[in-house]
Amino acid sequence: MGQLVDGVWKDEWYDTEANDGEFRRDTARHRNWVTRDGAAGQTGDGGFPAETGRYHLYVSYACPWAHRALIFRALKDLSDHVGVSVVHPDMLAEGWEFRTDFPGATGDALFGSDYLRQIYTRADPRASGRVTVPVLWDKRQERIVSNESADIIRMFNSAFDRLTGNDDDYCPETLRAQIDEINDRVYDSVNNGVYKAGFATSQGAYDKAVAPLFDSLDWIEGLLASHRYLAGDRITEADWRLFTTICRFDAVYHTHFKCNRRRVVDYPNLWGWARELYQWPGVAATVRPDHFVRHYYYSHDMVNPHRIIPIGPDADWTAPHGRG
Ligand SMILES: N[C@@H](CCC(=O)N[C@@H](CS)C(=O)NCC(=O)O)C(=O)O
């Protein structure tokens, strides 16, 4: 675990000392958008038109943020249009690696690099900042389009529709304000909330993260009692963004990040909803407990110094979900 400083790798854990033990996530630095015609998107530069075979996605099956991008690639029939390379689940002193000695870890299909940081320095030899997945790479300009999953899934939702013929819309204009509002709460207290609890280095910082996390899970359980999905009767981006945290929750966050007031299986509506999303066509293949269980327990030696992987719960994600 480390980061780039002027193109040089420095191996260091997150600095929580300056923030009373709180983990603060850095904001992503590459915020350009692939669009239908190459016009500039909401942020960054233009010049990234949707084209088959031009963009490549670097992911980890362990990472909930990268998982969002993989789910949208599957939902939107993008697999013949956007290639993928998958890093090894262990993220150690060198950061994410392209080792292939783990099932599903593909290596770097474009350049045969050893480390993900080489993708960042290929784009900018003096790159600084954290080396995170997902990364959407433009082969034409040899540049990172985006390393922000929230943006990548919005691009995937519509930019390639003319090429794929798939115009399923997970972020319809009429629901956008509601989706954004749900996303804000879910991001802060759930998606990032589990990390804030797990990486806290003071009791106060942990308490401050874990209470809103379970308040939000209770709120979601209530929403799902009267609606099939978070924003009503239609599945949206808000559901998929929550799902990638929920599918890791009982196996990882409950134990490793000390989020143990309740498990997902203890919330009947949330657990049924989670199974429905898992069973959605194309999604189960993106859910790789072998990668995420190994990654968290093995990579975070500040949290789990002996790297013992606990036995884990035995839940049946394929059981009927009953969410008619
Ligand atoms: N805002 C980014 C966050 C991505 C992120 O933090 N990914 C983690 C993996 S779960 C990572 O690569 N961390 C490496 C690091 O922080 O050094 C996104 O949503 O795309």
From TrEMBL:
Keywords: Oxidoreductase
InterPro entries the record matches: Glutathione-S-Trfase_C-like, Glutathione-S-Trfase_C_sf, Glutathione_S-Trfase, Glutathione_S-Trfase_N, GST_Omega-like_C, GST_Omega/GSH, Thioredoxin-like_sf
Source superkingdom: Bacteria
One Pfam short name: GST_C_2
Gene3D superfamilies per UniProt: 1.20.1050.10, Glutaredoxin (3.40.30.10)
Domain (GST C-terminal) ranges: 172-299
GO molecular function: oxidoreductase activity
EC numbers on record: 1.8.5.-
UniProt-listed PANTHER family: GLUTATHIONE S-TRANSFERASE OMEGA-LIKE 1-RELATED (PTHR32419:SF6), GLUTATHIONYL-HYDROQUINONE REDUCTASE (PTHR32419)
Record protein name field: Glutathione S-transferase family protein
